Structures are given as C-alpha cells and as structure tokens.
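Please check this protein record:
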Amino acid sequence: MTASQQAQPIEIRVEGVEQLFNTLDPFPFPERDLDSDAEEYIVGWARELAHQGPFTIVVHLPAREAEGEPARGLPRALARFFAYRADVLGRDFNELFRVGRIALLVGLAVLGLCLAASQVVSAAAGESYLGRFIGESLVIVGWVANWRPIEIFLYDWWPLWRRRDLYRRLAAADVVIKPD
C-alpha cells in the first residue's frame, strides 16, 4: 500500500461488545443494529479522515472481553451493519431519482402549458402592459415548476452518494480487536 492508500484507523474503546449494539433489538448478536451513538461516533470519525482509501476500525476491549465469542463475531457484525446501511442509502438514492424523473415530467408539462398560455395571452392582449405582465408571469411559473427536478438532479443526490460511499468503505473496513 502506498502512503495515500494506507488504512485510516478509527479507534473506539468500550467495556464490552454489547455496548456497541442496540440492546432493544430482538435479533441475536451478529444480526443486531449498532447503537445509534456508536454508529454516529464511527461515521463521524470516518468523515473526518481522508475522503479516499480504506479504514481500519480498532476496537479496544478489556482482555477477557477481547477473547470472547462476541469479539470474534464483531468484524462480521460491523460489516453486515454498514453494508445494510449502504444498501438502504442506495435505495434512497434510487427513490430520489425516481421522484426527480416524475417531478421533471410534471415540470416540463407545466412549462409547456405556461408557454402556450403565455402565447395565447400575448395574442389576445397584444402589447398591453397587462398582457405582457400575465404572459411573463406564466413563463416564470413554468420555470419555477422545474425548480425541484433541477434541485434533485444538480444538488440533492450528492450527500446520499457520499454517505453511501462512506458506509461501503466502513463495511469493507478491517476490524482489529485490541485487548487492554
């Protein structure tokens, strides 16, 4: 690995593996969701590190905990959780683009109707102030109807894309258990 490809460490210290997971989740240990505070901590630290390259999640545990079965299952449990979260964000990403396509169709239809209505008003009212005012207002309304699809396709997808990429990188992270 080159220096730029060196794994960035994310370090977390807990008294027991169960502290990392949601205790109200009814699933067995390896299938549980991470505790929201633990997830926020790991994801927050990952955001502060380099934007590219792999991560290593270093979990500091007391020696007796580090040798137990839950500690051995921790790499698989973390990978499963972050892969699941990346998948959820991927579905959110697809849903955003589906909504964007529908909004674009509606926006273009409204724009077309507004442009046609503007032409009708211009033909009927001629060059009067009121005719120009209504005609220009209709054109503006038509373009404003396209605000949301433009916002989706230019800006809204970036945060989902970055977060999904971050979760994928966390899912692929090596997990190292360090006994204290």
Summary: The mean pLDDT is 90. Helices lie at 36-48, 63-66, 69-125, 129-144, 147-171. The two ends are 28 Å apart (CA to CA). The CA atoms of residues 115 and 139 lie 6 Å apart.
